[in-house]
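Morning, I've got a small favour to ask if you have a moment. I've been staring at a protein lately and its backbone has me curious. You're getting the sequence in one-letter code plus the fold written as tokens. I've dropped the whole record in just underneath, so have a look:
=====
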Amino acid sequence: MSEKIARGTVRTTRSDVLLASAGGRGVLCGIYDEDAADTYHDLMQDADGTAEAREFADRIRPESGPVLELAAGTGRLTFPLLELGHTVTALELSAAMLDILRKRLENEPPDVRDRCTVVQGDMTAFALDERFETVVVSSGSVNVLDDAGRPGLYASVRENLAPGGRFLLAVAVAEAVKSESTERQQELSGLSGRRYVLHARMSPVEEIHEITIYPADETADPFVVCTNRIRLLKVDQVVRELEQAGFDVVSRTPFASAGQGSEDVLLLEALPRVAGS
């Protein structure tokens, strides 16, 4: 019996070795796929998004209305934004992750629940009934998209921004990555107590950061191997893409709370260009 592989999942060198060993117990999926939702949430529950949310919140005008959060996942950034008093529309493609987010909302006070709207949608192609003064994308999410996907993100954001609105996006950039390829491995503990192994490979030549997460227990059944490939982007490339999409990038700031990883992360603030300017 061969391993189960989710459609469109990225294979890594490490995942191939693991799946060959696991045989029929093996399940390969992207970290954002339905089969990975429990693993993602187990690890992300322990990843406090409060510091990241505060960096975004510092750039959100107090008088602005609801915030549109793209690629919300299970709410790592959503709940800190709510705790900071913002009204949030959380857009996420994965139905499994949205189920977890909704269950988490059920445990919140009515005031918090009433300030959060959950929407299933693709961040590269969405159209909502409301225009927002602020749209945010947390660190790494833009880097999952390829050259064909990013223009769809920019166009969708522009169509859903209110006049004078702000697009805040955190981008992992390639400028500070070492010239040679590097690999690292570490054990992680999920909030459930389950142990995982994270294997990361950084390739400056390919301009990717490749991640493989799997159970520390080699006998686990199913043996779920989660992968992700983050594209390391040049700052000038992203700025140029935004300008081509009708934005002006007004600031680029080091993103201090971006989390683990050897790549630098910048927080870009972009405003939709006024027609004729």
Remarks:
- The longest helix spans residues 95-106.
- The longest strand covers residues 161-173.
- The chain has a mean pLDDT of 86.
